[in-house]
Write a structure and sequence with these properties.
The protein is an alpha+beta fold. The protein has a single domain, classed as NigD-like N-terminal OB domain (OB fold (Dihydrolipoamide Acetyltransferase, E2P)). It has a five-stranded mixed β-barrel. The longest helix is centred in the first third of the chain and has 16 residues.
Length: 105
């Protein structure tokens, strides 16, 4: 194996090992923005995002743009796991970072 092939192989292995699926963005999903005060277990969280598709869960956003701070607002959203743990909600609550958010077409 020559030097070029060895370098390419090392680069591929390095890139593959550095991918972090926990922080990879999800595909766009339909979700509902909810005021945490009205969601059991999330009363101290402020705004939460409730997924009704494959996630089937409620998550806490790091931040939510003001224009989307409406209770029971349906949105199309892409999120990624946050490096910060959720500091509110039940023990299994996840904090997410919003990659994109928009109203449905």
């Amino acid at each position: 194996m020559n030097y070029k092939h060895l370098t390419l192989l090392a680069l591929l292995i390095f890139c593959g090992c550095n991918s972090n699926s926990d922080t990879a963005p999800s595909a766009e999903q339909v979700a509902i923005i909810k005021n945490g005060a009205n969601v059991t277990g999330f009363q101290s969280c402020g705004w939460v995002i409730e997924f009704n598709t494959r996630f089937g869960s409620t998550v806490v956003p790091e931040s939510l743009p003001v224009e989307f701070q409406q209770d029971n607002l349906e949105v199309r959203i892409i999120v990624t796991n946050s490096a910060d743990p959720a500091d509110c909600g039940p023990g299994e609550a996840h904090k997410v970072r919003i990659v994109t958010i928009r109203l449905p077409d």
